[in-house]
Amino acid sequence: MQITGAVLEEVGRPSPFAGSRPLSVGPLQLDDPGEGEILVRIEAAGICHSDLSVVDGSRPRTTPMLLGHEAAGIVERLGPHVDDLAQGDRVVMTFLPRCGRCPGCATGGRLPCTVGTAANSAGELLGHGRRLHRDGLPVAHHLGVSAFADHAVVSRRSVVRVEPDVPAEVAALLGCAVLTGGGAVLNASRPASGSPVLVVGLGGVGMATLLVAQALGHPVIGVDAVATKLTTARALGAVATYTPAELPEQRVTAPTVVEAAGHPRAFETAVAATAPGGTTVTVGLPAPAARAEISPLLLTAEARTIVGSYLGSSLPSRDIPVYADLWRQGRLPVEKLVSHRVRLNQLNEAMDALAGGAVLRQLVVFPTPTEGAP
Q1: Which structural domain range is residue 307 located in?
Q2: Are 276 and 255 in contact (CB under 8 A)?
Q3: Quick one: 157 and 15 in the same domain?
Q4: Residue 306: phi, psi to the nearest 5?
Q5: Per-residue model confidence (pLDDT) at position 227
Q6: Which of 73, 285, 300, 312 yields a CA-CA distance of 20 to 30 A from 324?
Q7: How far apart are alpha carbons 270 and 279 in whole angstroms?
Q8: Tens digits of per-residue pLDDT, 299-312?
Q9: 270-to-76, 80, 180, 202 alpha-carbon distances in Å
């Protein structure tokens, strides 16, 4: 079938992206779903810093590539041997499929799936190969999802069904921002009941950390260099907010600190703000060459722990229903993370806005079939 999608033509074009136009929107051919795959009509897709990292070259990927990895949509067609979903189901799309058989899959979420990681790196689906083509040539998939399009074919193992009462814009953010940020608390650190959590980096993932921590009964301290993000964090319920420079001045520490900025200086700030005996969880994804300086003696003398957490150490099939339930109870207002809504043809400008730190979570919204093209 023919679809419309946003293809990254090459990585590393200069900013502003509104001028260099690394993403081009146009027609592509999408194969029918194969064995163990489904066709999904995309309803909403989040614009994540991981997308920007591919665009600006921080995390190079194969191009041309149809970007987008955080989304929700409606199942329109089932491939062979998919018997636990139905047409019309709403699903959350997640960027790390799990084969269920490799050593990584045996760790309960602590390690990523080896097979899924290899497929993601190759720009393929979990079942191998590519289902996207343009002018007769293959187009790479982004993290097994490629959600910046009106339709996608994905592995059944890349989606989690949610009840229809969970709106698409909420469901989309459960697949990356909430899984990653919330999992830092729910899975990776598991702070003591009522214990405070300090979050360094208040983008979409950091704010999701804040919301989930609060939903689980933890007071949250927010840290960011951008004043407007501190204001937003207080509006979302943070008990206190600071710039990184203010933390040592005020001698602010916490037993659990989550670094969600993906920058080495933010990681250093998070470690320094961790109380003796405490845990630093890092979920940010810095550039591969980035380096940070910490004191090994500090870790030894104060019995501190540093935990790396990819996708929040999550099992999406286990954790997404937990977050959906918290939302349903009114304890996890995920919709408050959405700061802007855009269409496919505004993606280059949306990447500029994300790079400038002026937005929280932007969503690409897709019209229903009766509303016309995106």
Answers
A1: 177-313
A2: no
A3: yes
A4: -115, 125
A5: 94
A6: 285
A7: 10
A8: 999 999 999 999 99
A9: 44, 47, 17, 13
